Amino acid sequence: MTVPQHVAIIMDGNGRWAKERGMARVQGHNAGMKALREIVKHSDVLGVKYLTVYAFSTENWKRPEDEVSGIFKLLVRYVKSEIRELDENNVRVRILGDWSVIPEDSRKAVQTALARTEDNTGLVFSIALNYGGRAEILRAARAAAEKVLSGEIGVGDIDESIFSEGLYTYGMPDPDVIIRTGGEYRLSNFLTWQSAYSELVVTPVYWPDFTPEEYDRALEEFSSRDRRFGGIK
Ligand code: IPE
Ligand code: IPE
Ligand code: MG
């Protein structure tokens, strides 16, 4: 099996998982956090270098306030309970998205996690939080425009490499594979720029049920794909 360098995951299906069990949606998110813990560990075991997970989109603010606040509370709990082990395993935490506007206690937890792991050299674990692919592209466009205005570069100098410097994923390779749990065949504004040549693997399994074995299966499917990047064999 070829192990991808960068795996990105759309962790979907928490709500449906809870509903099927007659539970509140937030309990689905809680179960999802437990699944995440195992998937991060397994990524390290497999030798994945970059793991990026979609935790909260720029569109998820549309949800009822109690669900939104529940998700952020769980995030704080997750970060606080996992940070020591992540750090011991040399994992570097990154956040993709505008986390300046998330609730204060979550912001503090994030800040601590970033500071504590910034010098780590192992798995790069990115959490997309208040992330939107379009918002990210606009941000990069503004950054490039600023460089032109300041005279640093000319308009014609804006190429993919310079543009990428304004993306949250700056310095990271594009995802080789994007796994979506919960059965939906769409990207929902995830890694819009970076997904140009990513392999998409969709599984009907809800995120809380996504075990390391399911993860292996998804990566086996990735492994069987013929990636041509527009060329020929
Ligand atoms: C994904 O699960 C988690 C977030 C979007 C935060 P959902 O909450 O979207 O679960 P479904 O899709 O409603 O089942
Ligand atoms: C995508 O799931 C966002 C996250 C997993 C964080 P959604 O449940 O928000 O996506 P849609 O609404 O089904 O497209
Ligand atoms: Mg969903």
Which architecture name does CATH use? 3-Layer(aba) Sandwich
CATH structural class: Alpha Beta
Distance between the termini: 20 Å
Quote the CATH topology. Undecaprenyl pyrophosphate synthetase
**What small-molecule ligands were found?**
3-methylbut-3-enyl trihydrogen diphosphate, magnesium ion
Provide the β-strand percentage band.
5-15%
Please provide the count of β strands.
6
Shape annotation: globular
Determine the fraction of residues in helical runs and give it as a percent range. Answer: 40-55%
Order of strands across the main sheet: 3-4-2-1-5-6
Class based on secondary structure composition and strand pairing:
alpha/beta
Strand/helix succession: EHHEHEHEHHEEH
Radius of gyration: 18 Å
Q: What is the averaged pLDDT score?
A: 98
Can you tell me the residue ranges where pLDDT is under 50 for at least 5 consecutive residues? none
Please describe the biggest sheet, giving its number of strands, its sense, and whether it closes into a barrel: 6 strands, parallel
Please, what is the CATH homologous superfamily?
A: Decaprenyl diphosphate synthase-like
